[in-house]
Specification:
Distance between the termini: 74 Å
Order of helices and strands: HEEEHEHEHEHHEHEHHEHEHHHHH
Number of helices: 15
Number of strands: 10
Largest sheet: 8 strands, parallel, barrel
Radius of gyration: 19 Å
Shape: globular
Helix content: 40-55%
Structural class: alpha/beta
Strand order of the largest sheet: 3-4-5-6-7-8-9-10
Length: 324
């Protein structure tokens, strides 16, 4: 088989799904950006992972302004040269809650990713109940993203969070009150989440109802769920793919892990109710207290808790109220 025929065969095997109501189709598996900047992943390997993923049908690229001090975005930017940028749906995230900080971070991301526009920009780590109010303030980050959207710097707007499904629901409520509907929302969706503070049960039905693209992450919680000895990597990916997800984002720090993710997507078939029940029964006891989802039960995964300066200044009017 020639290289071109092999590439076409790989693309035919990759399932693609609607990204909510955006009229975009994306690969069912997305490539996580965080792993691309880790110390044990050198730059040539990260570029090879990205390009191999694209060549084999993965179109959804995940990243964030704060991943590995910008290394993840810089490496992805290099990997997407030479015609690769036009083959992908590129997403990144910003931490800024103020208009000024959000604008600054977005412009930095555009430079690092070496592109004139990003397909999807998401408000990152919406973890606190005050985050939605700050983001939608007239001096907040969402007005900055709307300005950037009008200027052609980005196409779609979403948000992410990993702490509590009720914060996601509040973000949707605040947006609705402002006459705004998100294009996407990203959250942990895995075999443990179903049992504890569940995004699957509380948030996903609302997103489906609104036509918001469902982005699943932490299907294995960076390998932590696998330490429970209750499920395999393929079972984790299969479970997340079986939910009404537009894309399941998974981190790949080696070619072998990339192969595993692509194989899970390529061979995916919808699970029966009995299969789902059997998998959840295996994980019920281990998941009961959130032990294997520390992003919900601790601040270890909260980069903006470690770096509150990334959020930017509080709205001026609120500070004036405090001083008045």
């Amino acid at each position: 088989m020639s290289k071109s025929h092999a590439a076409k065969s790989a693309l035919a095997d990759m399932p693609y799904r609607d990204l909510g109501r955006t009229q975009e189709k994306v690969s069912a598996i997305g490539l996580g950006g965080w792993h691309l900047g880790l110390k044990h992943v050198d730059e040539p390997l990260s570029i090879r992972i990205v390009r191999s993923a694209v060549d084999r049908g993965i179109t959804f690229m995940d990243n964030s302004w704060d991943y590995n001090d910008g290394a993840s975005e810089r490496r992805m930017g290099k990997a997407l040269r030479d015609g690769y940028r036009d083959k992908v749906f590129l997403m990144t995230k910003i931490d800024g809650r103020s208009r000024r900080e959000a604008t600054k971070q977005l412009d930095e991301s555009l430079r690092r990713l070496q592109t004139d526009h990003i397909d999807l920009v998401q408000h990152h780590e919406v973890l606190r109940f005050e985050d939605p109010d700050r983001i939608f303030d007239e001096e907040g980050a969402n007005p900055a993203l709307l300005d950037a959207q009008k200027a052609g710097k980005l196409r779609f707007i979403g948000f992410t969070g990993h702490k509590d499904p009720h914060v996601h629901l509040y973000m949707l409520e605040v947006a609705r009150d402002r006459g705004f509907t998100f294009d996407t929302a990203q959250m942990p969706l895995n075999v443990m989440d179903a049992h504890y503070r569940s995004f699957e049960k509380l948030v996903v039905p609302e997103l489906v109802k609104q036509g918001v693209g469902v982005l699943g992450m932490k299907s294995m919680a960076n390998g932590i769920i696998l330490r429970s000895k209750t499920v395999t990597p393929t079972e984790c990916l299969r479970y997340a793919l079986n939910l009404p997800t537009s894309v399941v984002i998974t981190g790949c720090d080696s070619m072998a892990i990339l192969d595993q993710a692509i194989e899970a997507a390529r061979t995916f078939r919808p699970m029966s109710a009995d299969e789902v029940a059997a998998l959840l029964a295996k994980t019920k006891q281990a998941a009961a207290r959130g032990e294997f989802e520390p992003f919900k039960t601790s601040s270890i995964f909260d980069s903006t808790a470690t770096h509150p300066e990334w959020l930017g200044e509080e709205p001026k009017r609120k500070k004036e109220l405090m001083s008045g």
